[in-house]
Design brief:
There is one protein chain. The protein is an alpha+beta fold and 317 residues long. It contains eight helices and eleven strands. The chain folds into two domains: 158 residues; 93 residues. Strands 1, 2, 3, 4, 5, 6, 7, 8, 9, 10 and 11 form an eleven-stranded mixed β-sheet that branches. The longest helix is centred in the last third of the chain and has 37 residues. The protein is elongated.
């Protein structure tokens, strides 16, 4: 189970890669993973959070989980910030609470006590959401984002545009199937919440987490791009105002679209299935084409107006 929050880094300009790495250095003597190609990307060290609480179930059954959740933060293109938290849910062999040393030796694993059905737990996490006394991975991932946002006084808190965070709840089921035979189901629950169900082969869990993070990133980018487009279409504004409204998206978002660029090769069929339906890149390309058409029409109008003004000056002379 995992939850990923995605939002705009609260700064007026994009961060350089060294500044992103400095911002994500959340633990001493633990390096920040950075890459420049095909796009600047930095990931913080992983932080463990101990949990001992109920797990949400769709049936309402009481299930207790004990262990640790893994959380981390990432910055893409010096502009988009993500916080993610996840844990592997397994049945306790002892079926009783053990010393914390046992759970700390298994980072990112939460063991269940009592009878627990995986489908029941998955349904509760995806549809019911966390109750006040149950495991809340969203709170952990949101706290990671807040930690990064408030970590450096150099962030000026003046983002180029306003855009709400999105959250994506993910459930990954590991089976005996080969990785290429995996399945993925993506659902838009509301304006800010999405759910993803993945079925992958063994030894694919970390790659599946990276797939979910990449999906959350590109879903946020698409959502952020559609917001000014929908506003421009619903309001009767002059073309200069439309182009000015689209300028932040042009300056800050268009160059960040690189789906599946960092995924393991055997995870690509899962992303390709998402490209068929719901078709992220198709919608992105159509939206970018509409924006470019607006800019082109605005440019033509400016050139025509300039030509008319020059013609009038020539006639006057």
């Amino acid at each position: 189970m995992g939850e990923i929050h995605t939002g705009l880094l609260q700064n007026s300009t994009s961060l350089t890669q060294p500044r992103s790495a400095q911002l994500l250095a959340l633990l001493e003597d633990t390096r920040v993973r950075c890459s420049e190609r095909p796009i600047a990307h930095a990931v913080s060290p992983e932080i463990l959070t101990g949990v001992d609480c109920r797990l949400a179930t769709s049936s309402g059954a009481k299930v207790r989980g004990i262990g640790t959740a893994v959380s981390r933060a990432a910055i893409t293109g010096g502009r988009v910030l993500q916080g993610s938290a996840y844990a592997s849910i397994i049945r306790s062999e002892a079926d009783r609470r053990l010393p914390w040393s046992h759970y700390l030796s298994r980072p990112g694993v939460v063991e269940t006590l009592g009878k627990a059905d995986h489908a029941d737990l998955a349904g509760g996490f995806l549809t019911t959401g966390p109750a006040p006394d149950s495991l809340d991975l969203g709170a952990i991932s949101g706290r990671m984002m807040d930690l990064v946002q408030h970590r450096s006084p150099e962030l000026d808190r003046r983002p180029p545009f306003l855009m709400a965070r999105t959250r994506m709840r993910c459930v990954v089921v590991v089976t005996e199937a080969q990785p290429a035979e995996g399945r993925v189901q993506f659902t838009v629950e509301d304006t800010t919440t999405r759910t993803v169900q993945l079925t992958v082969g063994q030894n694919s869990l970390l790659a599946a987490v990276e797939l979910c993070e990449d999906l959350a990133l590109h879903d946020w980018l698409l959502t952020a791009l559609l917001k000014p487009i929908e506003r421009s279409r619903s309001e009767r504004s002059a073309r200069p105002q439309v182009v000015e409204r689209l300028r932040p998206a042009i300056d800050n978002l268009l160059h960040l679209w690189m789906p599946a660029a960092r995924l393991e090769k055997f995870m690509l069929p899962l992303w390709e299935s998402l490209e068929q339906r719901p078709g992220f890149t198709k919608q992105w390309d159509v939206s970018v084409g509409w924006i470019r058409d607006q800019v082109a029409l605005h440019t033509i109008m400016l050139l025509s107006s300039l030509a008319e003004d020059n013609g009038e000056e020539h006639d006057a002379s």
